[in-house]
Every structure is written in structure tokens, then in C-alpha cells.
């Protein structure tokens, strides 16, 4: 009991002392600074602040990238609000530990550190790192890849988190094979637009589920069949699917199982959100459920690597995958872009353009 009591005291002390380094980060002198978005407290997009922060310098094996465009994802919304609250055990209880925000970026190599062999100043690249919503980022040379010549900086910035998530859902967890039937629920969203194209590229016959206004978009991406969810419930249809990639999670596991083939695979990418645990509670349900049925139920966290980005670069270079951008915002309008993201109405990706 004494050990438990001490642990609770330590947790309480940690809670009240938990904070961030806002004052230190914001103390950069203008001559040494760049513009970057920070958030010192959890909250709505209004807590985002464009501030002067210390400009980065590339170290051994690193490159300095001048950001030309940055993408935003639901990942940023979760960090901004600190939800589900269970996340705060890792990212900060009362305030975010890391006040920088963003992941996806595309830009031009401005400088290289010692022993860099893969890139030189002037190379156009894209990748992902924490704090990407800034004028410049420093990243390991092995964490970025060259931007395809046939896509823009904005399109490249739409790729890392969303497209890697789609690639791993379709290829690594859905194991999509030529001739298989694949249903993508949420086919017009940031991840869904990539999932439709990637599933088709792997030879799948794709059914895309979206709202009425996005049916034509989903069909143009390669879906052989489209379902307007305002008129039809895919779990009540007569078709069965080898793979379901679900970005929405608006149906129970039992309902999804009904339209899976006996050896089918259900891959959960997104689900109903909540303040405390959801959608993580559904992951527990899936683990238990999988032990009693013939189908496979999978949930995963995407891991952005240069190998995955290279695969996507090649698909884009070949014209097989094209990023879909809903809206572009100037860099300074990140709060407005986040507000639009949180409406859930975006089709494709939202990106910000950073002036060179």
C-alpha cells in the first residue's frame, strides 16, 4: 500500500509541475529566429500562435530544409486538444511538453551538415518530422526523399502521414492482392483518397464509400463501385469484401464482419472519437473479437520511413497516385485551416503554403 501511495503522490506532483518550455522557445532574438507555430496550452485552434523561434542548424548527417508547404492531419488536432486524454500521459498532463506542431512538409534543401552524401543545397525534398509547421526544419538525411518532378510542393506536403497510413493499411495489414475486393469507408478523406488509389494500384477491385457530393471524386480516383452512405448502408448490402479499410468506424465490428469474406481482413484506421479513451477502446474490442472469428481485425499506428516515402514517390512519379488537395491556406492562416479540418468536411488534404 505504501508503494501505491507514493506512486499516487508522484503522479500528483508531476501533474501540477507538468509544463513546457514556452518561455525559452519564444525568447529567440529576431536576428537568430524563424517563424514557427507553437501552442503553449491545449485548446481550440485559437491557441495556435505564430512566433519567432530559434532558427535550426543542421548537425552531423542532417539537412536544413526551407519549407515551401506543410500538410495538416487529424494527428495535429489530437495533439492540439490533448485528446483522448490518455495521450496526455505521454505528451503532457496539463500542458503540451512539446509546443511545436506539425509533421508533413515539402521544401528545398538550404544547407547540409557534415558527412551528408545524399543531398545538396537546392534539392527538392519531402518528409515528416515533429514541428514541421515552420519556415525551416532540420531532419536526418535518411528521413527525407526527393520530390517527384511531376508534383508540386503542396501535393508533396499532403503525402507523408496520410499516404503512408494508407499504404501500410492496404499493403502491410490488408495484404491486398490482385483480384481481391476492397472496400474503403471514408474514401474521400485525407487517408481515404490515397487508400483508393493504392488499393487499385495493388490490383484490388475498389468500392468507395463517401457522401453524395464526393461520389464523383471517389470514382475518378479509381473506385469501380461507389456507395453514397446517405442512401445506402454498405453493411446491409449483399456484397462481401476481402478487405475493409475503415477510416470512419461508424459501424460495429459485428456489422463489418457480416460483409467480410470468411478469411477477410478488417483494418481500422479511424474511429469514433472521444475525450477519454476512444477510439483506443475499440482496439481492445478488436483484439478480443479476433480470437473468436475466422476473419482478421487489425488496428495500427503508421510509421513514416524513407522506404515508405520512396514507394509513394515512385507511385506518384508514375502517375499511379496523385494527392488530392481540398484547400490551400497561407502559412499564417493555420488556425483557420485547423478549424476547417475539424468540421470533418474536407475531401482530400488541407495544406499550407510557406513563402520562400
Explain how this protein is built:
Residues 1-17 have low confidence and may be disordered. α8 links the parallel β9 and β10 (225-228). It contains 12 helices and 15 strands. With 356 residues, it is of the alpha/beta class. α6 crosses α7 (190-201). The strands form 3 sheets. Strands 3, 4, 5, 6, 7, 14 and 15 form a 7-stranded mixed sheet that branches. It has a 6-stranded parallel sheet with strand order 10-9-8-11-12-13.
Category from helices, strands and their pairing? alpha/beta
Please bin the fraction of helical residues.
Answer: 25-40%
Along the chain, the helix and strand elements come as: HHEEEHHEEEEHHEHEHEEHEHEHEHE
Shape, principal axes of CA atoms: globular
Largest sheet: 7 strands, mixed
Please count the beta strands (DSSP E, at least 2 residues each): 15
Mean pLDDT: 90
Total DSSP helices: 12
- What percent strand? 25-35%
Q: Measured on Cα atoms, how large is the radius of gyration?
A: 21 Å
For the termini, the CA-CA separation is: 60 Å
- The unreliable regions are 1-17
What are the salient characteristics of this protein?
six-stranded parallel β-sheet, 30% helix
Describe the protein's topology:
Elements (H helix, E strand, L loop, with lengths): L1 H16 L4 H4 L7 E6 L10 E6 L7 E11 L1 H8 L6 H4 L12 E9 L11 E5 L7 E5 L3 E3 L6 H5 L2 H14 L7 E5 L4 H12 L3 E6 L4 H6 L4 E4 L12 E6 L6 H6 L1 E9 L11 H11 L5 E4 L6 H12 L7 E6 L3 H8 L7 E5 L3
Helix pairs in contact: 6-7
